[in-house]
């Protein structure tokens, strides 16, 4: 909860708004932030876009980018963040795409692989991390990772 409060406080201080486009994290990033009283002052519109078609329909992600790089890629994560920024005009946008398992998927993506997109104003960042543990551990670890990364960049 303290991490979430620090982020909301930093966003308020900077007069920034935040939006998310979450696939593998299923809305947990924005959910964590809105647990903080006063988060409505900084939260905008967020998306849970789990399927490829949702990423395309709701956000306008280009099918060619998914086909070329695979849905679990930094390129798709960044495209999700860019499209969300276009829609919301938020100062901060976080996106996630990945494989939390436990099943083997047809793209041979290693379970625990999560890709992140992060935009703060005009600065764009991507990262790809591998997390271990159960499905829920992987998701929770991914949420904590990107929120810590965001806080470091805001301070």
Word description of this protein:
This protein has 155 residues and is an alpha/beta fold. The protein has one domain: CinA-like (Maf protein). The protein is 45% helix and 19% strand. It contains six helices and five strands. It has a five-stranded mixed β-sheet with strand order 2-1-3-4-5, sandwiched between helices. Helix 1 packs parallel to helix 6. The longest helix has 20 residues. It is globular and about 45 Å long. The model has no long low-confidence stretch (mean pLDDT 94).
Tag the structure with descriptive keywords:
single chain; 155 residues; alpha/beta; Maf protein; five-stranded mixed beta sheet; 6 helices; 45% helix; 19% strand
Topology:
Layout: H1 2-14, E1 18-22, H2 28-34, E2 47-48, H3 52-59, H4 63-69, H5 74-88, E3 92-98, E4 113-120, E5 123-130, H6 135-154
Strand content: 15-25%
**Biggest sheet overview:** 5 strands, mixed
Give the N-to-C terminal Cα separation: 18 Å
Number of domains: 1
H/E element sequence? HEHEHHHEEEH
CATH architecture: Alpha-Beta Complex
**Nearest-integer average pLDDT:** 94
**Strands, count:** 5
Main sheet: strand order: 2-1-3-4-5
CATH superfamily: CinA-like
Outline: globular
The number of helical segments is: 6
Rg (C-alpha, Å): 15 Å
Proportion in helices? 40-55%
């Amino acid at each position: 909860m303290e991490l979430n409060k620090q982020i909301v406080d930093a966003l308020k201080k900077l007069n920034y708004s935040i939006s998310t486009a979450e696939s593998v994290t299923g809305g947990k990033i924005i959910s964590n932030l809105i647990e903080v009283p006063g988060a409505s002052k900084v939260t905008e519109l967020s998306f849970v876009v789990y399927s490829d078609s949702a990423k395309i329909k709701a956000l306008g992600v280009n099918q060619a980018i998914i086909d070329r790089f695979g849905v679990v890629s930094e390129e798709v994560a960044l495209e999700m963040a860019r499209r969300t920024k276009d829609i919301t005009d938020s100062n901060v946008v976080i996106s996630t795409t990945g494989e939390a398992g436990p099943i083997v998927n047809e793209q041979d993506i290693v379970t625990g692989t999560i890709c992140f997109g992060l935009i703060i104003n005009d600065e764009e960042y991507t990262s790809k991390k591998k997390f271990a543990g159960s499905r829920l551990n992987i998701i929770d670890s991914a949420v904590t990772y990107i929120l810590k990364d965001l806080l470091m960049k805001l301070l």
